[in-house]
Amino acid sequence: MSTTPVVIERSNDSDRPAVRAPGLFGPLNPRLVSWRGRRVWLVGASSGIGAATAHALHASGAQVLVSARGREALQAFVDAHPGAQAWPMDVSDAEAVALTARQILAQGPVDVMLYCAGHYREMRADAFDLDELKKHLRINYLGALHVLHALLPAMRARGQGHLSLMSSVAGFRGLPKSLAYGPTKAALTHLAETLYLDLAPLGIGVSVVHPGFVQTPLTAQNAFDMPALISPEQAAESLLTGWAHGEFDIHFPKRFTRWMKLLRLLPYRLSFAAVRRATGL
Question: Do residues 197 and 155 lie in contact, with contact meaning Cβ atoms separated by under 8 Å?
Fold first, then answer.
């Protein structure tokens, strides 16, 4: 496996070498190139990007562990991918997540964890639904915290591993109909940025994934034409490419996401006007 060059220096209070974070040039994370024998835990892998990424990783030689609430979908994946393991769980149940993590770690270390569990329903302010807002929060954000709480101590003790959080371009700026979904994705992006600052010096990789429109069960409910729509398989290919390049911010398809990044840089007066003009809302 090819890795990012790091600087090794002697720690003042330990015989263990300390790992200094990458500098201004080169990849921000260790490159994830060779997957053979690596244990990858995908949380939210029953469909969409998660399932497609699990398939791609299995084909690349990784030992794939898939989690989601849908037992039947997980079992179907395991049946079609020899050596894969199904670990059904509800990410909103902290105790269930902790138990699953303990059982997985008892078998061996987790080299990479991808959190891609997600929930999405359109919402605007004239249909403010507190229960639905809380459901988005439990699945999209609190679930990620539950997994990190259960897994991070083992990665820190080992001084190795990679954590990847599935955010969205919907978290870049406020968008119509994204009152429930967008804020949770913005929170994941902020979480990944802060985790990177804390964990990169320890040798642990962190990445955040910002997909545009991907053809999944979540986006199937959209009643508008989705620009630059791609398949889950294309998304999985872009994700593995981003990991191989050591990227922190993995975004795709770039013909769409670059425009969304530009929107994030505009002053609010201009960005609000641009969004209204583009959406008609």
Answer: no
pLDDT tens for residues 43-93?
A: 999 999 999 999 999 999 999 999 999 999 999 999 999 999 999 999 999
Domains of the chain in start order, with CATH, are 27-279 (3.40.50.720)
- 99 CB burial (10 A radius; 0-12, 13-18, 19+): middle
- The whole-angstrom separation of Cα 103 and Cα 160 is 19
List beta partners, residue 64.
Answer: 40
> How many other C-beta atoms lie within 10 A of the C-beta of residue 181?
24
Residue 72, sorted as left (phi over 0), alpha (psi -120 to 50) or beta, turns out to be alpha
For residues 180 and 174, give the distance between their C-alpha atoms in angstroms, rounded to a whole number: 10
For residues 223-242, b (16+ Cβ closer than 10 Å) or e, as one string?
A: eeeeeeebebbbbbbbbbeb
| Cis amide leading into 253 (omega within 30) | yes
Token pair of 50 as six digits: 């998660």
